[in-house]
Amino acid sequence: MSRPPFLVPPAGVRAYSLATRRGGFAVLDAAPAGAPPLGTALLVPGFTGSKEDFIALLEPLAAAGFRAVSVDGRGQHETAGDREHRSYGLGALAEDVLAQAAELGEGPVHLLGHSLGGLISRGAVLRAAAGGREPFASLTLLASGAGRVARGQRWRARAVAAGLPTLGQRRLWWWVQPKADTSELWNFQRRRWMANEPAQLRRTGRTLCYEPDRVDALAATGVPVHVISGERDAAWPVPELDEMARRLGAHRTVIKGAEHSPNADRPVETAAALAAFWAGLPERS
Fold first, then answer.
1. Record keywords: Chaperone included (predicted)?
2. Total of domains in the chain
3. Distance (Å, rounded) from C-alpha 73 to C-alpha 203?
4. CA 34 to CA 56: how far, in whole Å?
5. pTM of this structure
6. What span, in angstroms and rounded, lies between the C-alpha atoms of 117 and 51?
7. What is the pLDDT of residues 93-125, one digit of tens each?
8. N or C: which end of the chain has fewer CB within 10 A?
9. 198-210 and 116-130 are packed helices; what angle lies between their axes, rounded to 10 degrees?
10. What average pLDDT does this structure show over 44-49?
């Protein structure tokens, strides 16, 4: 899970529930001051994550002229979920993203997904293309690969799925985060973990273990893609991300000093790379 560098939203960031045709979703929303945005970025978190994973990107993206909206997915943190596993299949979560994008107003929407959120966001782009829709001006895959995660991460996801019904969420937390402390961040991560719907954790963990390679289908949509990662990544090895970017004809950025969460490890550099990519895209008719 990402470790946000801070938890209090910067001045000008609004926290509210975004109403959509598929229900409400808790968001953090930052917009440029004094001018219409150059575009809107929809930021989708990964497994066990939340909107706060992007909190350090919001202010620099707004300063660069982009509205940035980070979201809790269905059954994540402050967005309600249910106990039905089908609610958390990749297709259902992709439809949630499409519904969120539809409510963000006029102008281009740049979709970004971190880790599992990248697989979900890719699914949203593919579903839109299959239906003849073009809701996204670009897709950024942030530390998210071509298909299922590396073997060690698959073992962890399966352990979470197996442990939830037997140990329960409270006990399993001590396996997920065995080193306790009294910091505000540790307490936040524990509250967030406990707020997640168990069915969501089990079903999305399965997606991480079994999602196939859909790179060729994504390339065929023609949506501009940006692949960003840190210098090291345990979920998808960096050479695999390099190869995925080559297959996609994607823009590629490696953030120095970052690992699986460049958004939290090096937010200023990550925001700069995102803004430069979005600003450099040609306008689509």
1. no
2. 1
3. 13
4. 21
5. 0.96
6. 11
7. 999 999 999 999 878 899 999 999 999 999 999
8. C
9. 80
10. 96
Residue 99 lies in a domain: yes
Give pLDDT, residue 142.
Answer: 98
- Domain range enclosing 76: 14-149+213-279
Task: Categorise residue 143: left if φ over 0, alpha if ψ from -120 to 50, beta otherwise.
Answer: left
Between 25-29, 121-125, 172-176, the lowest mean confidence (pLDDT) is in: 172-176
Tokens 């509205």, residue? 67
Would residue 241 count as lying in a domain?
Answer: yes
Q: How far is CA 226 from the centre of its chain?
A: 14
On whether the CB atoms of residues 198 and 173 are closer than 8 A, the answer is no
Q: What is each CA distance from 90 to 67, 100, 192, 217, in whole angstroms?
A: 26, 15, 21, 16
SS3 229: strand
Do the domain assignments include residue 4? no
- CA angle 124-194-92, nearest 5°? 20
Structure tokens at 36: 């219409």
Q: Is residue 136 part of a domain?
A: yes
- Tell me what pLDDT residue 285 has: 52
pLDDT at 214 over 80: yes
In DSSP terms, which residues pair with 225 in a beta bridge?
139
- What CA–CA distance (Å, rounded) separates 184 from 234? 26
pLDDT tens figures, 237-279: 999 999 999 999 999 999 999 999 999 999 999 999 999 999 9
219 or 176: which leads in pLDDT: 219
CA nearest neighbour of 137 among 222, 254, 64, 57:
222
Is residue 142 within 8 Å of 262, Cβ to Cβ?
A: yes
